[in-house]
Amino acid sequence: MTTANTLWQELQQGDRDHVWHPYAASPPTGDVYPVTSARGVRLTLADGRELIDGMASWWCAIHGYNHPLLNRAVQEQLGKMSHVMFGGLTHPAAVKLAQSLVRLTPEPLSRVFFSDSGSVAVEVALKMAIQYWQACGKSEKQKIVALRSGYHGDTFGAMSVCDPVTGMHHLFGDVLSKQHFVSAPDCSFDGPCPESAMTEMADLLSRRHREIAAVIVEPVVQGAGGMRFYSPDYLRKLRALCDAFDVLLIFDEIATGFGRTGKLFALEHAKVTPDILCLGKALTGGYMTLAATLCTTDIAKIINHSEARAFMHGPTFMANPLACATANASIELLLSQPWTRTVQRLNLQLEEGLSPARKLPGVRDVRTLGAIGVIELDAAVDMAKVQPMFVERGVWVRPFGKLVYTMPPYIMGQQDVATLTGAMVEVVAAL
To answer: Is the pLDDT of residue 19 over 80?
Structure first.
């Protein structure tokens, strides 16, 4: 009979021998923690310990784990078909999901292209913008403008629009497409965006708009590039600039979509509609990988009249029925509940729980927005030292760089939030 300790050791050893983890050496320099099950907001480790998950599995498990309604959706779809190619075929789950996404997002977004992951959704958006201008007879418009401190994914096109200096991809700088970058907005979320904040963007578009296909931004919240929050007014002014200089606007809502900022989509803070919208992460409630790129009817129509007479992209697992069925169930579950009040409650509890960190040495800033809580430090954390400190306190938080942050599942209760934020403050104090 395998004991918990033996299982732990076997999994640890097998992992070290063969598994390569994200943003890590192989074998890893620090510990990895074997998870054998998860329910609600708790991860159960192989040795029987439970951790309160403050990361929602990289921000996607908004309903927590092992939710009966989402489990049932997977099981029901599995009994019909797990997958079918999407070339020349369609299926009920995909049609329903596309209809839902169009209904929930603002006009004139009306076409939905499904893909496997957030990074691919961004690739699709970039290709869509470039192919659109080719079809318009403006093939010179191939460059993209992005914000510094931005992050859009790990595939090559997505890497090319991530921050080239402080981002994670500078090692590949010589082989990535050269894009244009402007400074990240420095106007606070609660304040207006002065015209001076748009000068750099306006100057670039004025000079180079004939070669620029699109501007891509993460609306309101720059995620993995620094957990920075900025004024929705910036997006309104950016929309006006893109219109003035005949440039498409892409919103990357992979991290912010489905309620994370307190609005169903972050674009609602600004009441601005992009030409192309990327969604992912929480789309399936964290059950499986799926993403979507939405665009306007005009973009689809123009591309249809291009040389190829089609948009040239097609993932093998595009619109996977299991993923689409789960996404439908996740969206229905979210909208059937008073989710806005839930996120507001989480925001108040995160603010209350993290506020003591403002008095600690080495803390540069403490900020919250929706179901996001961030402690920004003056110096980068030592992950090998910090991770075990959180596990010892019964919580799972995965800091990066100078940021100790949380994006918990929406279902997390008050006591668990207090435990989570208390652990974050304690660990920062110990540093």
So the answer is: yes
